[in-house]
Structure formats: structure tokens, C-alpha cells
């Protein structure tokens, strides 16, 4: 894929960028390596001041940055503004809490025959971040903020269709006062990722993206014995039981499916509804999906904009077509609107069977799969019948059912009576083919640290 800004609302190529040459790339890697030797010794007070300055800058430029993201990947302007605000919050969270998260952890010195004994967290070095286009600011920031506060330096290889957002991120930290080389954007193609990851100056990597991309990065890093964190796809279940607040469950279900134009790993995708409330839920859910306004994402009244890429739109269309050919019923949507850009009409389909691709594959766009179940055992079996394990949702006011879902849903995140959202305060990540490791919270900042045991006589 060429490195270019292509407006998904119109399909128009607005700006193209030349990838770094081998020499330029080597210069960036050398700078990161040299910078780490001094940056790692800066104290938390200094890092906090720089991070707060970066947060202030981003907050002051919210509208400009939001419009840039909307232009590059098609999210609604309303959601783009929220993404900027979320990044500001995340930056300030780590500025405020990093020192405590990484404080020395005392051990029982007498038990090990020492005068003092403790564990210390220390930064690893230059970390490569391979980031996706769907949340072009937040995905990168939830790596950058904790990494920089821990004393690591970052190398960002962003998706090729959001180059302006990528360059903005690299410039933001420099403008805030971080030393040159602390966080650099690498405008390179995916074919150069292996070369960077195998470079001895790069010590670790984090990737948010597709399962094939994650497998590739994990294999390369494994052969080099380098730490990785992977946040891959998801096919999150959204279970509704008879005791649920149906008004809340329906309203949240719509948001959970079409947030970010349906292009979110933690978007609810498989709606599993108990037979006692299935008809009522379905009628309300379909009516709300049909009422969504599809259009220009810059228009404040738009609910769903275009998909980010033409290929993504085509892939989604093929998933729905395959299901229909094999017997699925479309309750609403199910077609590509006759208009410029990469739009797909918000869709609800049912009567899905395991032979259909959509039963196993992630639908990365505004398509909801609807299932009917008779009891909680059937609901859990269907919810877990996926190779993914990122997020999950359960709606019930029955406390015994809540505990059952918390215990038995196979996922890194369980949200009861709400929608899966990433918070700086909570760990974020998945199991199974959704990846490993955690981002955010204290757990996230420690992923790229050396936990050093210290024994002093």
C-alpha cells in the first residue's frame, strides 16, 4: 500500500509521501539508540513536565487533529474529537501515576538473608510500535505515553493510510520538549518492519492489528528473543439475558456495533439474545440501526461514515454475501450505497450457521450478527465459539449470572451491563488469537520494563 492520505468519503488521493530511504531509516534507528542512553536517566519530574506539555498542546489543537483523522480514515468528526480528548486524558494519567507504578517493590529481606531486597523496574530501550488506522491517535498514544514515562524511546510505524496523523505524533513530543529521538515516526512500508525488528538497536515491539500481522511480528521477534505485546482482532459477544434492562441494552448495542463506523476490535459484533427477550430486542435493535444516518463524517448529524479503505468495504460486503448465499436473513441493510466513497449500509443479519464465514471471521464494519439462545449455557457456548478473545459484554441484573459470565467468558475484558471501552485505569488486551500482553494501567507500563531483582548484604 502506498503511503498516502486518501479521503474515504470521496476516494480522492489528497497527498502522497515518500518512504524513508535505507540511509534515513538507519539514521533514525541510530538516533533512538543514542538518545536512550541519556533519556533513561531523566527523572520522573522531568518526564512528567514534558508529558503534561504534550497533553496541553494536543488539547489546544483538538479540532485540527480531529479533522485530520476524519479526513484520513473517515471516523465521524464527533468521535474524532472524543479520541483526541481520550489521548489527553491518557497522557495526563501516566504523567500523574508513572512514578508510583514503577516504584521499587520491597521484598522480605531477612527471608533471603539480605540487609535490603527489592524489585526495580527499568526501561528496556527503543521499542517499535506497529499501529493501525482505526484509532490512529489513541492506539499509538496508549503505547507512547507509558513508554516515554517509563524511560523507553519509541519508534512508530503507523498504517500507511494515516501518514499525517503519524507525522503529527512524532512532532508533538518534540514540540513539547522531549529530546530529539525520544519518539520518532518511521514512514516505511510493511515490507521494512522485519528489517527494523531484527536491528539489534530495537529491543522490543508492540503491534495492534490483524492476526496475520501479529503472527509475523511474533515470529520475527521470537527468533530474535525480543519482547512483544500483541493486540489483534476481536469478535466480541454481546449477551442479553431476560433480566436485562432492555432499553439500556438496545441503546448500548447500537453504539457498541457502529462506533468508529464499526471498525473497532472491541466493538460488539455477535449479539446473543435469550429467547424470552429475543423478539423485543430484535425489533428495537433493527429499528435503531435503520434510523442511523449514513453520510459525510464531517457533518455533525452523521452517525456512520465510510469505511477507511475500499478493500475493507469490499471484504465486509463479501462476508455478508457469503452468509446470505448460505441461508442467512438480512433484517436491515446488507448493501453498498450508490454514492462515492467507501460506505456500507449498517446491517443486521440472522439465521447464521457455522458454515458461514461470518460465524468465525471478524466483521470489521457496521454489520451485526444476531443469534437466539435458550439458556445461559447455550449463550456461553456460543459466545466462546470463536478463535478470538478480546472483549465481551453481558447484560443481566441477576448476580449469579453476572458471576457466571465474569468467570466463564473467554476474553481479556468482561463488561457487565455496559459497552467494552478501554480506560487508562484498567488493563487492556486479549487471549487466544486476540493476542497477549496488556496495555494501559500499571500492567501496561511495566510490559516494556526489565523487572530487576536487587539483593544487598
CATH architecture of the largest domain: 3-Layer(aba) Sandwich
Shape: globular
Strand content: 15-25%
Mean of pLDDT = 98
How many whole angstroms does the radius of gyration measure? Answer: 23 Å
Ranges with pLDDT <50 over ≥5 residues? Answer: none
Class inferred from helices and paired strands: alpha/beta
**Main β-sheet: number of strands, strand sense, barrel status?**
7 strands, mixed
Order of strands side by side in the largest beta sheet?
Answer: 12-13-14-11-10-16-17
Helix content: 40-55%
Number of separate strands:
20
The CATH topology label of the largest domain is: Aldehyde Dehydrogenase, Chain A, domain 1
What's the number of structural domains?
2
CATH superfamily descriptor of the largest domain: Aldehyde Dehydrogenase, Chain A, domain 1
Quickly name the level 1 CATH class of the largest domain.
Alpha Beta
Question: How many helical elements?
Answer: 15
Distance between the termini: 58 Å
